[in-house]
Amino acid sequence: MTVQVVRPAGAGHETLYVLLLCLAILLAAGSVVAWHSETDSETSIESHQIDARRDLTPAEQGIYADLRVAFDEIQIRRDEEQTLLSPEEMADEGFPPFVDDASAVSRGSHQWQQLPGDELAYFGASQALDVAGSLLMLGDAEQAQADIWLNRTSSEEPSSLDAQSLIAAGWQQIASQYDAGVTRQHRH
Questions:
Q1: Residue 79 in domain
Q2: Whole-prediction pTM value?
Q3: Which end of the chain is more exposed for a tag (fewer CB within 10 A), N or C?
Q4: How far does the chain reach from its first CA to its final CA, in angstroms?
Q5: Does residue 23 fall inside a structural domain?
């Protein structure tokens, strides 16, 4: 008679195989994440500039966005009619931030005027500097975007529109940098 010994099924080998499979999956996932990760490259702005995404109040962000849209419309109309629209004409046509409505009141009640000269230059004197600073929009025919400046300490019209004079008078240029971090802010 032959006796054959049958060992019970051991869970040791099966557990080892499951653990090795889990380790392989974790290593594969880790390498994919490392391969697809973005470098944390923060673009710096100059000392006279202010970041449109991080450093503006909500009211200032709204006016800034409105001015960028208005600049496009001003350029289109200037090309068609060979003249610049006045703030009153833009208000009559309903272009924010030039129109005097409830939104304008909640954003600082800016009083808009077109500055003299050949340049596209609009100045908005804030009536509530604690809500939003005074704004200045400058541009010319060759620019794709307007240069927008902010002054949170004064509602006085700038005496000169060159960058050095504006900086000396306390104006800050609003810089908008759209990169991968626009929707993801990393606060460290």
A1: yes
A2: 0.71
A3: N
A4: 77
A5: no
